[in-house]
Amino acid sequence: MSAQRLRVAVVDDEEPVRKALRRLFLSADIDVETFASGDEFLASLSVNPPDCAVIDLHLPGLTGLEVQERIAAAGIRLPTVIITGSDQPGTAERALAAGASSYLGKPLDDKVLLAAVAAAVRRTPS
Amino acid sequence: MSRRSQAFALLSGVEPAKTLRAGFPALPRSVLGVAAAAAGYFLGSLLGLSFPFPFTQVSAIWPPNAILLATLLVTAPRRWWIYLLAVLPAHLLAQGLMGIPFAVVLINFAGNVSEALLGALAVLHFARQPVRFDRLRTMGLILFFGGLVAPALVSFVVGELLALTGATAEPWLAWRLRLLTNALAVFTLVPPIVLAATRDPRKSILPPWRRAEGAVLLAGLLAVGILVFVVPEVGSGHTPALLYVPLPFLLWAAVRFGLPGVCLSVLALGAMSMWGVMGGRGPFASHFPIENATSLALFLNVVCAPLLLLAALLEEHATTEAERRRAEQESREQRRELTHLTRVAMLGELSGALAHELNQPLTAILSNAQAVQRLLARKPLNLVEIHDALQEIADQDLRAGAVIQRLRAMLRKDSKELEPLDLSAVTREVLVLAHSDLVTRNISVTTRLAPGLPAVRGDRVQIQQVILNLILNACEAMSASAPERRLTLATADEEEGVHLSIEDCGAGIAPGAMDRIFEPFYTTKEHGLGLGLPICRSILVEHGGRLWATAGDQGGATFHVLLPRVVPA
After folding, report:
1. Single pTM value for the model
2. ipTM tops the 0.90 cut
3. Is A86 close to B359, i.e. CB distance below 8 A?
4. CB of B137 within 8 Å of any CB in chain A?
C-alpha cells in the first residue's frame, strides 16, 4: 500500500472549496476526486471506491450525515472524515456513531486534515 | 426646590438658591425654600405697605398673600404648616416695622393665612390631578378661587373684625380695597411663581432674538404707559379711549411671552399708573384718593384676567402639541429599536448558516495558502498552479468580505437614507444571505424575479429584513412535515406598484388567523415572539406599501409585498 498513492474523494457543494481541497491533497501527493452532491458520490462508489472520503455535512439533497449513514447501511468499509462549516451540537456524535473516523470543523488546517485522513485509512484496513 | 427658591429670589431680589447653596452647602434645600418663602412674604409686605396711594394706606397691589398662595400650590399639603409658621415672623416684623397695632397685625395674619389656604385648597380640589399649571383649567381656578372667591370671603371677615377693633370705620370699603389689591397680586404674581417653580428651567431661557423682541415689547409698553398714565394732567380732557392703547402690547405679551409675559406687562403698567397717580397725573388721579386706588386696581385686574386666560390657553395648546410630537417621536424611536432588535434576533437564528457562509471562503483560502506553501517547497516550481491558488485566495477573500459587509449592514441600527431599489435585486441579495440555511433545511428555491423592474424607494436593510423574515417564516412552516419543500419567489410590475410574492408548501394559515398573524404577540411558533410579521407590516406601511397573506395554490401560504413605484421626477 505504501508504494501506491492514496486516493481521496472530496464531497462539497461549493466549487471553490472542492478546488482548494483538491489542490491541497495533490500538493501532499494524494490523488483526489471531487463530487458536488451526495448522490453523485454514492453513485461513484460502485465503480471505483476511494481510500478515504472527506464529506461536507452541508449538502443539497442528501446531507453529509445521510451519505455517511447510507455508506454504513450498505456495509461499505470506507474510511470517512466529516467536515462542517457550522458546528451544531450533537452532529459530531451522530457522525462518529454512523462510522465516521473523525469530525472536523472548517476551515481545515492541512496537518490536521492530512493526519485525520491518514488515521482513517489506517483504522479501516480494506 | 431650587427652582422654587429661584422664583422667590427673582421676586424678592435675593440671589438664587444656587449661590445660597454654594455658601451654605450643608443647608437642605427645603430649608432654603422655607427661607425664600418667608423672605418673599416679608419683602412683599414691605412693598405693599411702603407705596400707598397719596392720603390712603393702600397700595394698588398686596403681594404677601399671593406669595403665600403660590408657595402652598407648589408644595405638598403635608408640609404647608412649616411654611405658614415660617411666614409668621416675617409678618410680625414687616407690620410691626410699620407701627400697625398688634391686634390688627394678628387679624391681618389670620386673614392672609386663611385666604391662601382657602385658595390653595379650592384649586387643588377642583384641578385635574396631577396638577399642571400650564393648563387653562388650573389657571382659571387660580384666578377664580385664589384671586376672587378666597379674597372676597376673607376680606369680608377681616373688614368686620377691623371694624370691631375700631381700626376702620368703613368695613365695606376695607373689603373692596382688600379684595382688589389681593386679586391684582394673585393675578400678576402667582402664575409666574408657580410656573417658574414647576417648569423645566431650560424652557425659560430665551434665545437672543426673543430677548430682543421682549426688550422691544417692554420699551413700547413703557412708552405707551408714560403717554397714557404719566403725561396727561388731571382733567386735561383725557379720553377714556386712551386706556386701550396698551392693549396691543399686552396681547403681544400674551401671545408671544405667555403667562409670565402678561404678568410682567401688567405689573409694569401698574407701576407706571401708580407713578402717575402719585404725581397727581393720569386718568386715575382724581380728587378722591381711595377712589383712585380702587379704580386703578379694578382696571388692572380686568385687563389682566382675560389676558392670563388667553395666555394659559395658548400655553396649553403649545404644550399638548409639543407632548404629542414628543410621544410620536418616542414611538417612532421605539419602533426603530424594535425593528433593529428583531433584525438582530433573526440574524441570531441564522447564526449557524452565517458561520457556514463565512467558513466556506475561509476554508478555500486556508487550503489554497497551505497548498502554495507545499508547492513552493518543490522543484521545479509549478508557477501556474501557484498563480491559480493565489487568485482563488484573493477571490475567496473578497467573498468573505462581502458576507461581513452584508452582515454589518443588517446589524447596523441607524437606518440609511431611502434609496431607489430594484426589488428583484434586493430579493436576490437576501437569498444569498439565507442560502446556507435553505440548503440545511433542504428547501428548493424557485425564483421568477422579473428583470428591469421600476425602482421602489426604500431603506434597503429594512426591505431585506422583511424579505428575510418572510423567507424564514416560510422555511419554518415547511419544517414540520411538508412532503415537498419548495419556496417560490416572484416579482412583477403591477398596476398598484412592484409586487413580490413568497409562496411556501407548508401547512398554510387557518382561515380565521389570516388577519391575526399580523397582530403583535400572535404566534403559532413554539419559540416565536409574535413580533416578526407586525414589524414587517409596519416597515412596509412606513414605505407606503402593503403586506398581506393569501392561501397558496399548493396548500401553503403566500405572502405579498407591494411597494409603490418611484414616481419619475
Report:
1. 0.61
2. yes
3. yes
4. no
